Amino acid sequence: MIDIHSHILPGIDDGAQTVEDAINMAKLAVEEGITKIIATPHHQNGKYTNKKVDIIERVSKLNCTLQKENIPLEVLPGQETRIYGEIIEDLDKGDILSLNNTNYLFIELPSGHIPRYTEQLLFDIQLKGFTPIIVHPERNSGVMENPEKLLDLVKKGALTQVTAGSITGYFGKKIKKLSMQLIEANLTHFISSDAHNITTRSFHIRESIIEVNKEFGNQAVYYFQENAELLINGQSIFKQEPSNLKRKKIFGFF
Ligand code: FE
Q: Is residue 253 part of a domain?
């Protein structure tokens, strides 16, 4: 299985702090059935810089360490880029790293809202030949309040990634429900861990697969696993026609 979102690279963001942390995360990833994992350290304007060249170098270092430790996990390069106005300029400068050097790019929205310029920026990213993947939309309150905005972005070519822990209920019932609704409405294309450590922000991949299988069947599990594989190979992923969320009756009306 392939995990496309993780903070396993040590000492550069709020994920693994030491090489030992990274090794422990790698061991747990293998236990969860993960064979390849994309390291996606934060690129958050001002807070964490993590430029492309540094990430690539650190990924190869970590792979050497894992080989020495006999841990059968391959780390691939990536980045989680918080949305900001100059992404295009920095893409041109070579500071922004796509996922495993493909044309897929992670974009993180701020947790509180969807910035007004999002649609234009995602369009510009696509004009540059990249496909933006919005990470964990289920944890964005703008999406929670107005899922139609996400539908609009997906219709205009953006992809999305739901976090495994959201599906298992780790982030609460509301986020779990929204995650399931996003899957049901074909508004998400990937499930991945976004693991930061092995305690408070762990993988939850196995559990999430059980949940997805229970709710949507084996086909859905296969769909997400296949898409992760297509992504790392730079191929076109599977998409189904997205729709609005099916809203269930709330308090007897709606
Ligand atoms: Fe992340």
A: no
